[in-house]
């Protein structure tokens, strides 16, 4: 769960009275924009609003600096529904912000995150911000490791800024304001908080650090973020309808993590275990409709509900239903197989021409496979079940070969249509 | 042992892997009675020789937790454990996520001797993890996890924490020379399984967890592995996110600590770099520099050799990276060879594809994808064999109230299906075939029907023996369902049913596994089975048995329907007769024929064994219903012949024709037989909620005989249910009281029907007005439908299908055509908002009336008899559907599962 931009991000900073450049949303009037431009040295910045975690907007040319309402409106028109590509992910804007331009001869980058190197929270700071922090040479940035109970203190900031040779006129206000970020981070379940850039504006003759952009990641396993009162939909771009239905089932008893990989895929994998999730999704690639981890010994009701939702969404397009995992330690295979095959029996009318492949080991694996065999024989659905004495990777490869056999091909070569009879 | 100097800038309390978990470890488990602990702790405790010294369960002041090797004392807090004088060095936490950091604090605060904590819980927040880290570093306590499956020591047979090695840890955790460090708990065990195929066992296995915080990370593990004399190589499985591995490799390269043992590393999760939230392991979220590709490079640079290629295995003394965990055995072997080390034991099995269960059903797979089942490794192979010895489907029992595994209603068009085939598609199948299909889920073919029809007719002949019961009921004013039901009820588990069932069971035991589901004749097998008559069911000889056995034997030969079962039945009967042993050759042959029909669905596990054995009972009960149902038996020559059964050729008729002749006392013409057959098939079921079937299922749920359940079905029919179309028949008789639609030319028919419809409409106007004044509702039966009602002109697709089917055969049903004129007239007169559909009930009434019309007109039967005939027709059709529901319930239902929930019961004052 991530958010970027000041439209929603400023709420976090307002909690601790961290200064933020003035922000107007897409419904601002011409007068309001005029006033914003006038009060910020004749400039304002127009940015598209993306829900979820979206970075590198500037590099993509999606940030405009304008000096009049007309240009602001043009930028609004251009950026309101702007499309942005990140890796193989395409995201679309759903609005714009007009942000006051803060004239500054320095841009600060600051972030707080968990460090696997120190196994503590760290604050990363540079006075050469405004760019990707990875591009800043090591000598120009400082990592502050601090006590997670007492938090980051002013002296940490002061020491780092002095080492970075920050112009002295800015140090006092930064030392005053930056430690506040820890309160936000610690109290609201964040795993990353990044302000980039902070620009040093002047208020009543004193320098003030204005946050000009924000990125925040929230811990799914820490409910503290709910106290912020954000509307659920701001995280919605990262969660599809299918994922949100499954997420409702998220409890600590048994996993129910899913990600849509390719809504046009043809293999529907029920993956058990985090390791299998990582390995199987990698091998299946775009063939996989979803990536999932349903391990952790889920009770029947949970895996049944998961299977019901999964089949409802994806069975119609699947060539292969795949149940894959290593040799389970604790997950009861009979329970999980029974839940999935019971659900398949209920949903088989959505696509009777499916092939089932399973690769699994663990407690009650034979009972689970026998149950699956009996259900599938009743449905006349073809299947292959492999135990843990077959390589999981080979089972994955085999399921891909079967999927290939089912891919559209000239009619003469197409697999024979099954004569399916429901049990 | 002289260890290296502890090189870490933070607290690490162990020097060697062996110290992490061994036979001296003493464990206390928090939330010992939790769901997961309840399953895992007894196994761990037994495997580890009883190393759990105490459990804590909040809210419990004392008690014990049972395990196979003795009870574990349970306390309400850690303080209570300490006060009881129990010492432990390792804490295991099974609490829900929000309670974990508090439990860690409690353990650290209350037990000064605590050395490590294993946190099994998933989804502990990052904030709690950093507080745990801080607290445990100060308390000098090592933390494993969270989201770990713990630690296992295969040498000492100890596991601490979760379920490493599964429910039978001795199978996976075999003593050996390889240490495993894995971000995945499941892969910890899976890799140890894979290692065995190359002859390697394990020293210590650690499931590190893959949260954002990994408290006991790779650097610590490698350091401890180097100091562990049992360990000669280390398998590492890691995922994206975090710099733990880079730190470990950098420290080794920098000389912060020494590692002389090879690492076999697997990194997966390249695809995860596109994720914006975790899927699977919470910590497997990469930033820009710690994704899977970056980690692969870290390892490759460290090893100095490219990723392992099983075709050209190249490894360095530092180890090698593998692409997938399936390369673990070969890569470990290559590294060990380089080190001059041998496997720990002979290899066990391999990782090639070995399907335990295969069925391609009717799909023709290309050669390269074809597979055959392979016997599973011990002990699974024996377990599978045990299951395979069970014959037929095994279906989990579940409540069946208002549910059915036989019939269904398609929510899209409200069409009914039985065993996955729509009734509309079954219409043209011979009704006799449908009675078999209802039970066996498999439609007999034409060749089989050449034997099945006579067999069904024989059941009807046999069923007619006690028609006196029905005559008594009729004399007492019983409705057909009641009088027929009385005879059905008395059938109970009669000797015929019992004999057929016992013989079928005996035949299954003799032949099912021997033939592997193949019915081809095998003289050797027949000979063998003949010589082993052990347990042959007792038989009472029937005087007609020989004649009938001969007749059916000839039928089987003539129509090429002989099977190993029928040939055996004949050979066995001959042998027993020759030896003077009692045998009912015909019952034996009937059992063989029936079982032959059930053989394929049995082999395909589509039906349970009991269903196959009960087929004779179902068909026998159907025979009783047909056999005792003629309205005037004494005036029905066909029935008389059937009843007397002096000449077996009377059995040769199509079963639907037999039903027709029993009811109508005449031979049907081609069109009549077609419509009658279709009508029976159409009334087989009305879906899972069918009232008549409910009667049967409720009876079955009370554990009655099948005959009693049939009586339940019959008891649940009556004038309001089964007089299906009665109302409509009555209405149509009124309408056609002065018009014979079969008189006159076809050209005259349509205008006449239009005229009748117009008059019926006007009459309805008058009746409706009158009804309005009286405050009652007036309606015309069999038009309109709650679903097919919103278009300008509406159609019930089922009615359309049958009407078109009849038209295609050149059959015009005048009553049905009248109905179509009527709905148009009603709309034209403004009585309906749109043109109503003619619904499927009208079809049933119209066909029934069509069949009865001539006899009614000619006075051969009266209204009362017509009513009985229509009712009995309904019972014929429904008996097939009910047999399907009973067989389904017997296979998957539970005792008393059709009861109404007490919470739904209402008392009306």
UniProtKB/TrEMBL annotation, chain A:
Signal sequence extent: none
GO biological process: succinyl-CoA metabolic process; tricarboxylic acid cycle
GO molecular function, one term: ATP binding
Lineage: Bacteria, Pseudomonadati, Thermodesulfobacteriota, Desulfuromonadia, Geobacterales
Catalysed reactions listed for this entry: oxaloacetate + acetyl-CoA + ADP + phosphate = citrate + ATP + CoA
Entry keywords, A to Z: Acyltransferase, Ligase, Nucleotide-binding, Transferase
Organism: Geobacter hydrogenophilus
Domain ATP-citrate synthase citrate-binding positions: 242-400
Keyword Ligase: yes
Coiled coil spans: none
Any Pfam family hit: ATP-grasp_2
SUPFAM superfamilies according to UniProt: Glutathione synthetase ATP-binding domain-like
UniProt superkingdom: Bacteria
GO cellular component: cytosol; succinate-CoA ligase complex
Residue ranges of every copy of the ATP-grasp fold succinyl-CoA synthetase-type domain listed in the record: 29-198
Name this polypeptide is given: Succinyl-CoA ligase subunit beta
UniProtKB/TrEMBL annotation, chain B:
GO MF entry, a single one: acyltransferase activity, acyl groups converted into alkyl on transfer
Pfam assignment, any one: Succ_CoA_lig
Recorded coiled-coil stretches: none
Signal sequence interval, chain numbering: none
GO biological process, one term: tricarboxylic acid cycle
A GO cellular component annotation in the UniProt record: succinate-CoA ligase complex (ADP-forming)
InterPro entries, per the entry: Citrate_synthase_sf (IPR036969), CoA-bd (IPR003781), NAD(P)-bd_dom_sf (IPR036291), Succ_CoA_lig_flav_dom (IPR032875), Succinyl-CoA_synth-like (IPR016102)
Name under which the protein is recorded: Uncharacterized protein
Organism: Geobacter hydrogenophilus
């Amino acid at each position: 769960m991530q958010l970027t931009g000041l439209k929603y991000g400023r709420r976090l900073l307002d909690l601790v009275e961290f200064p933020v450049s003035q922000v107007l949303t897409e419904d601002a009037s011409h007068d309001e924009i005029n006033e914003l431009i006038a009060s910020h040295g004749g400039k304002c910045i127009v940015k598209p609003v993306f829900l979820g975690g979206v970075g590198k907007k500037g590099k993509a040319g999606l940030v405009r600096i304008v000096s009049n309402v007309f240009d602001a409106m043009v930028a609004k028109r251009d950026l309101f529904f702007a499309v942005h590509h990140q890796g193989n992910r395409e995201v679309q804007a759903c609005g714009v912000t007009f942000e006051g331009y803060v004239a500054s001869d320095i841009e600060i980058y600051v972030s707080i995150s968990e460090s696997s190197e120190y196994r503590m929270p760290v604050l990363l700071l540079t006075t050469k911000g405004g760019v990707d922090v990875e591009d800043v040479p090591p000598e120009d940035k400082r990592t502050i490791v601090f006590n997670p109970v007492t938090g980051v203190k002013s002296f940490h900031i002061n020491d780092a800024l002095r080492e970075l040779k920050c112009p002295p006129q800015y140090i006092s206000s930064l030392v005053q304001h930056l430690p506040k970020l820890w309160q936000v981070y610690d109290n609201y379940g964040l795993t990353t908080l990044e302000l980039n850039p902070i620009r040093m504006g002047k208020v009543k003759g004193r320098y003030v650090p204005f946050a000009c952009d924000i990125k925040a990641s929230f811990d799914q396993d820490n409910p503290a973020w709910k106290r912020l009162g954000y509307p659920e939909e701001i995280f919605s771009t990262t969660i599809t309808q299918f994922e949100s239905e499954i997420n409702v089932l998220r409890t600590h008893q048994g996993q129910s993590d899913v990600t849509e990989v390719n809504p046009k895929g043809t293999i529907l994998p029920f993956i058990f275990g985090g390791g299998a999730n990582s390995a199987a999704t990698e091998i299946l690639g775009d063939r996989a409709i979803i990536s999932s981890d349903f391990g952790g010994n889920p009770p029947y009701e949970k895996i049944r509900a998961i299977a019901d939702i999964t089949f409802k969404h994806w069975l119609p397009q699947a060539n292969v239903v795949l149940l894959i995992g290593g040799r389970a330690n604790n997950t009861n295979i009979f329970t999980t197989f029974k839940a999935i095959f019971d659900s398949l029996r209920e949903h088989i009318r959505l696509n009777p021409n499916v092939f089932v492949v399973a690769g699994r080991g663990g407690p009650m694996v034979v009972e689970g496979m026998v149950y699956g065999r009996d259900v599938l024989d009743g449905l006349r659905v073809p299947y292959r079940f492999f135990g843990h004495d077959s390589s999981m990777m080979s089972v994955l490869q085999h399921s891909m070969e079967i999927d290939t056999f089912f891919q559209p091909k000239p009619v003469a070569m197409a697999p024979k249509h099954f004569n399916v009879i429901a049990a | 042992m002289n260890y290296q100097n502890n090189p870490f800038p933070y607290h690490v309390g162990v020097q060697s892997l062996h110290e992490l978990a061994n036979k001296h470890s003493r464990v206390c488990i928090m939330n010992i009675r939790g769901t997961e602990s309840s399953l895992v702790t007894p196994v761990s405790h037994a495997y580890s020789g009883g190393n759990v010294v105490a459990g804590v369960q909040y809210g419990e002041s004392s008690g014990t937790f049972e395990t196979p090797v003795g009870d574990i004392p349970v306390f309400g807090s850690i303080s209570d454990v300490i006060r009881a004088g129990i010492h432990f060095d390792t804490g295991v936490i099974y609490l829900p996520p929000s309670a974990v950091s508090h439990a860690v604090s409690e353990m650290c605060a209350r037990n000064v001797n605590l050395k490590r904590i294993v946190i099994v819980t998933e989804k502990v927040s990052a904030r709690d993890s950093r507080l745990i880290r801080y607290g445990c570093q100060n308390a000098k306590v090592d933390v494993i996890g969270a989201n770990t499956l713990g630690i296992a020591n295969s040498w000492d047979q100890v596991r601490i924490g979760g379920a490493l090695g599964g429910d039978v840890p001795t199978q996976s955790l075999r003593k050996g020379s390889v240490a495993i460090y894995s971000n995945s708990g499941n892969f910890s065990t899976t890799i140890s399984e894979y290692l065995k195929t190359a002859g390697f066992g394990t020293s210590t296995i650690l499931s590190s967890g893959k949260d954002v915080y990994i408290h006991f990370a790779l650097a610590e593990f490698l350091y401890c592995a180097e100091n562990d004399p049992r360990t000669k190589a280390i398998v590492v499985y890691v995922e994206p996110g975090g710099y733990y591995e880079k730190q470990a490799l950098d420290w080794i390269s920098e000389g912060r600590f020494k590692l002389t043992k090879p690492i076999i590393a697997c990194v997966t999760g390249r695809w995860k770099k596109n994720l914006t939230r975790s899927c699977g392991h919470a910590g497997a979220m990469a930033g820009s520099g710690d994704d899977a590709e970056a980690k692969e490079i870290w390892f490759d640079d460290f090893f100095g050799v490219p990723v392992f290629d099983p075709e050209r295995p190249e490894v360095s003394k530092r180890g090698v990276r593998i692409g997938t965990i399936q390369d673990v055995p070969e890569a470990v072997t290559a590294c060990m060879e380089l080190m001059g080390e041998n496997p720990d034991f002979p290899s066990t099995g391999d990782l090639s594809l070995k399907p335990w269960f295969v069925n391609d059903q009717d799909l023709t797979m290309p050669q390269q994808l074809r597979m055959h089942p392979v016997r599973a490794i011990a002990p699974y192979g024996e377990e599978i064999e045990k299951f395979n010895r069970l014959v037929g489907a095994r279906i989990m029992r579940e409540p069946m109230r208002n549910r059915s595994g036989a019939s269904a209603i398609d929510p899209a068009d409200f069409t009914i299906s039985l065993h996955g085939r729509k009734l509309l598609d079954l219409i043209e199948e011979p009704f006799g075939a449908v009675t078999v299909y209802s039970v066996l889920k498999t439609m007999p073919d034409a060749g089989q029907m050449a034997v099945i029809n006579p067999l069904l007719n024989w059941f009807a002949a046999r069923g007619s023996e006690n028609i006196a019961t029905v005559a008594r009921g009729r004399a007492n004013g019983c409705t057909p369902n009641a009088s027929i039901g009385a005879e059905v009820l008395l059938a109970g588990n009669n000797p015929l049913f019992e004999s057929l069932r016992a013989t079928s069971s005996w035949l299954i035991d003799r032949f099912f596994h021997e033939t592997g589901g193949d019915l081809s004749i095998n003289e050797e097998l027949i000979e063998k089975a003949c010589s082993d008559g052990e347990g042959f069911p007792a038989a009472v000889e029937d005087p007609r048995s020989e004649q009938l056995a001969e007749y059916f034997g000839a039928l089987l030969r003539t129509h090429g329907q002989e099977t190993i079962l029928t040939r055996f039945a004949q050979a066995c009967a001959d042998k027993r007769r020759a030896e003077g042993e009692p045998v009912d050759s015909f019952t034996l042959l009937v059992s063989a024929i029936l079982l032959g029909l059930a053989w394929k669905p049995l082999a395909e596990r589509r039906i349970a064994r009991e269903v196959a054995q009960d087929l004779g009972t179902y068909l026998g009960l159907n025979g009783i219903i047909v056999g005792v149902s003629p309205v005037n038996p004494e005036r029905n020559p066909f029935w008389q012949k059937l009843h007397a059964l002096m000449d077996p050729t009377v059995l040769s008729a199509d079963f639907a024709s037999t039903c027709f002749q029993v009811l109508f006392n005449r031979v049907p013409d081609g069109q009549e037989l077609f419509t009658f057959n279709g009508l029976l098939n159409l009334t087989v079921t009305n879906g899972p909620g069918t009232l008549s079937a409910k009667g049967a299922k409720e009876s079955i749920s009370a554990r009655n005989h099948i005959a009693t359940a049939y009586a339940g079905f019959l008891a649940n029919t009556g004038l309001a249910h089964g007089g299906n179309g009665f109302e409509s028949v009555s209405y149509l008789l009124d309408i056609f009281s002065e018009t014979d639609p079969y008189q006159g030319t076809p050209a005259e028919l349509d205008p006449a029907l239009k005229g009748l419809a117009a008059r019926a409409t006007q009459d309805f106007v008058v009746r409706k007005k009158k009804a309005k004044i009286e405050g009652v509702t007036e309606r015309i039966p069999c038009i309109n439908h709650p679903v097919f009602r919103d278009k300008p002109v509406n159609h019930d697709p089922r009615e359309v299908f049958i009407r078109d089917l009849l038209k295609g055969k050149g059959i015009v049903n005048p009553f049905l055509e009248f109905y179509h004129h009527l709905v148009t007239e009603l709309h034209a007169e403004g009585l309906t908002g749109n043109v109503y559909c003619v619904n499927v009930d009208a079809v049933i009434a119209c066909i029934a009336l069509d069949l009865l019309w001539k006899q009614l007109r000619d006075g051969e039967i009266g209204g009362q008899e017509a009513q009985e005939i229509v009712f009995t027709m309904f019972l014929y059709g429904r008996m097939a559907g009910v047999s399907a529901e009973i067989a389904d319930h017997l296979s998957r239902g539970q005792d008393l599962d059709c009861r109404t929930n007490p919470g739904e019961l209402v008392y009306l004052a």
